Amino acid sequence: MPFPRSLLFFTALLASAILAAPVATAQQQEKQELKKTDTVPPGGSAGGPNMPDQNAKQEPSSKVEGTTDGPIFVDGKLNVPGAPTDVDTVPSKFSQRTAADDKLPIAAYASKHLTEEQRRAIRASAGGSSEAGSRALGGYAEIGAIVPLEALEKVQAFPDSVPGMTGTSYLLSEGKVLLVNPRTRIVVGIVE
User: Fold this and answer.
1) What is the pLDDT of residues 41-60, one digit of tens each?
2) Rounded Cα–Cα distance for residues 174 and 181 (Å)
3) Which of 35, 47, 112, 143 suits 66 as a labelling partner, its CA being 20 to 30 A distant?
């Protein structure tokens, strides 16, 4: 005759309760041991609220002697020994250079770095009169303008002799050399 299911369940439950009793007692004894050795009073820290060394680990650099005594930032510039001074992160209200950069269209950042010597080389490389085709492209001599598809046949790549112009093409329009990103067809700079 097979063993009834309910009797099997009851036997398993009784066995687990008998085996779990010593484990629970051992855990209670362990908690009592910890309470005896714990020196921090409940509800607060041992040294009070103003003792940072007691409760948290501090960064080693926070205790180094001889660092700046004043504020870390002055007029938006980092005021620590060895910090760079000519940076683009200074807010525009403190830096004329940053204020001028903020007025530039985003597309102009591609040609912002060009020196006067590079601009002369670009103008010489483009050569010839820029009056040819200027009527067809009137109004596109503006940074951020998108060159129309029909004018793409007039876009030319710069020769390798022109420094700093890899990946940029040019187009002559309205007496100016338009620097064009050939992938996006956006005018990224103007050389007069």
Assistant:
1) 555 555 555 555 556 666 66
2) 18
3) 47
pTM, full prediction: 0.51
What tens digit of pLDDT does each residue of 150-190 get? Answer: 888 888 888 777 777 778 888 888 888 888 888 888 888 88
Q: For residue 173, which of 186, 150, 190, 149 has the smallest C-alpha distance?
A: 190
Q: For tokens 């066995």, what's the residue?
A: 15
Largest Cα–Cα separation, the chain: 111
Phi, psi values for residue 59, rounded to 5°: -65, 140
In this structure, the answer to whether residues 184 and 122 fall within a common structural domain is yes
| Same domain, residue pair 111 and 149 | yes
**Domain membership of residue 147 as a residue range:** 107-191
Under the phi-then-psi rule, with left for phi > 0, alpha for psi from -120 to 50, and beta for the rest, what region is 128?
Answer: left
Helices (H), 38-80: 52-55
Sheet of 186-191: strand order equals 156-157, 169-173, 176-181, 186-191
